Amino acid sequence: MYSSRFHWDLQRNRLTELLAAKRGQGARILDLTQSNPTRAGIEYREELRRVFDDARVLRYDPLPAGSLEAREAVAGYYRQRGHAVEPGRILLTASTSEGYSYLFKLLADPGDQVLVPRPSYPLFEYLARMESIEVRQYPLEYDSRWTIDTDALACAITPRTRAVVLVNPNNPTGNYVKRGELVALVRMAAERGIALISDEVFSDYAFSAGDERVTSLADVEDCAAFSMSGLSKIAGLPQMKLGWIVVAGPARMRTEAFEKLEWIADTYLSVSTPVQCAAARLLEYGAPVQRQIQERTAANLAFARQALAGTALEILAVEGGWSIVIRVPRVRTEEEWCLELLDRDHVLVQPGYFYDFESEAFLIASLLTAPAEFQEGLMRIVGQASGLF
Question: Are 30 and 89 part of one and the same domain?
Answer without folding.
Answer: no
